[in-house]
Each structure stands twice: as structure tokens, then as C-alpha cells.
Amino acid sequence: SILAEGFALTMGKSKHELKVERQKYEEEVRALLEKYDTDGSKTLDTEEVTQLIHELDKAPPLAKDVKWVMKMGDKDGGGTIAFGELFVVLQKYKKYRNDNPDLIRLIAKHDKNKDMVLSSNEMKALLQDVSESGVDVTDADVESVMGEFESLSLGAGSSKGIDAECLSKAISNWQDRKIDELSLFGIPVSMPKMDMPKMEVPKFEPPDLSGATSWTDGIFGCCASPDEKAAKRKSGKT
Fold first, then answer.
1. Can you give the C-alpha Rg of the chain in angstroms?
2. CA distances, 67 to each of 45, 46, 72, 170, 205 (Å)
3. What is the pLDDT of residues 57-76, one digit of tens each?
4. pLDDT tens figures, 201-222
5. Least crowded by CB within 10 Å, which of 31, 206, 218, 221?
6. What CA–CA distance (Å, rounded) separates 53 from 130?
7. Quick one: 189 exposed, middle or buried, by C-beta within 10 A (0-12, 13-18, 19+)?
8. Res 76: pLDDT
């Protein structure tokens, strides 16, 4: 379907072909809206969106994924998503879900019963998949990754499903530990790193202390407004 594959590249396509693709996509979105609009309001609320995403992903969605769709789709703040909003947000959701393509693929491959919960055996198979041939994944490795993953998931407020970002971080940390462990025995190892979402770290800007007149002013006075600093200097207070 157009929805599953995403819009094809427009380069080299005629206006007629693009119009046909758009019409097909509109029909698919409208069909999804009608299917999950259980109350006949011609809009989708959070519960209905959750069921829709479950169908698209073929797995129970994470709470944060549903929250993302509602935030991006509910532009008027009414708590529901109408057809026009759904038309746009489903295109964006495909890109959003592709932020961790390798890990998402591996989870789908090893989550045999599709319950979005990895058992010890499933986790072991996944870890073996991201390890170099000849590297044995032990039960202790599995326990280490699952323990850290659970801790990270609780910290991120994810109680249901598999939080791909937390699992990616847990696997990446385990890979670093495994490489260090094997290097002690002179075994050179390299492992494919999980793609982590890029995060922008705000640049630290040191406070301007040029107007400080004393040690205490240097620590606390930097937070005062220019007028407050001028009044303090005029009164002779330090």
C-alpha cells in the first residue's frame, strides 16, 4: 500500500502519476479513519489512535509513540485527530518510526510471538545477531543487558512495549563492556553499533562576571538585572 511504503520519489513522475498516488493515499487514510472511529465522530481520540498504530506497526505501540502522534496530529488542541490532520501525521510517523531502523528490524525478527516483550532466549538471539561471529553471548551478558534495559525503561517512564531508544543504549553499553572484556585476552573484536537518535546538547554559556564588585556579587550578582547591579554599586553595597 502507499501508506506502508511511503510516497515514492517524485522525480521522473508525471503530474497524473502523482495525483493517482495521492488519491490512493487519501483513500487508505480515510479507510483507517472510518475503521477506528468507533464513536462516529469522524475524528480519532487517543484510544482509537492507539488501535490504529497497532495495526500499522503490527505490534502494541509504546505510550510515547501514541503521545507523539497526538501531539503532532492534534493541531487544534481538541484532543482528537481529524482526517486532514491524520493525512499529514501518518506521513511524519513513518519517518519517526524509522529513526532506529536496524533495531526495529531486529526486534521484529526476534520477538517471535509479537507481544513486544523479549524473553531471555529472544534477547540472547538478538545480541548474538549484533555480535561478531565467534563471539559467544553468555547468560550473564543477557542478564546484564536486560537489567540495564529495564532500569532505563523505568527511568524513561516506559511501562509497556519495547522502548527502542532504551534498548539501543543498553546494547551499546554492553558492547563496550564486551569489547573491553575480550581485549584483556588479546581478542580483537568490533561490533556493529546500534543507531542512536541524535540529541542536541545545549551549549554551556558561562555567566558574565564583568560587573561583579565583590566575591559574593561574583557568585550571586551575575543573576541580577543590569538595573539591580547599578543600584547596588551606587548604594556602595558589596
1. 26
2. 11, 8, 9, 23, 32
3. 777 777 778 888 999 999 88
4. 344 454 454 554 443 343 334 4
5. 206
6. 28
7. middle
8. 87
**For residue 225, what is its C-alpha cell?**
538585572
Q: Per mean pLDDT, which range of 85-89, 163-167, 172-176, 187-191 is the poorest?
A: 187-191
Contact status, residue 191 vs residue 130, Cβ threshold 8 Å: yes
List residues bridging with 81 in a β-sheet: 44
Q: How far apart are CA 100 and CA 164, in angstroms?
A: 7
**Dihedral over Cα of 152, 156, 158, 164: its sign:** negative
**Cα distance between residue 98 and residue 95, in whole Å:** 5
Give the contacts of 135 (CB within 8 A, at least 6 positions apart).
Answer: 178, 182, 189, 191
Distance CA 27, CA 40 (A): 18
> Rounded to an integer, what distance in angstroms lies between the CA atom of residue 3 and that of residue 94?
9
Q: If you search the block for the grid coordinates 482528537, which residue do you land on?
A: 80
Output the DSSP codes for 148-202.
Answer: HHHHHHHHTT--SS--HHHHHHHHHHHHHHHHHHHHTTT-----PPPPPPP-PPP
Q: What does the CA dihedral 221, 224, 225, 230 come to, rounded to 10 degrees?
A: -40
pTM of the model: 0.46
For residues 13 and 18, give the distance between their C-alpha atoms in angstroms, rounded to a whole number. Answer: 7
The three cell numbers of residue 3 are: 501508506
pLDDT at residue 25 greater than cutoff 80: yes
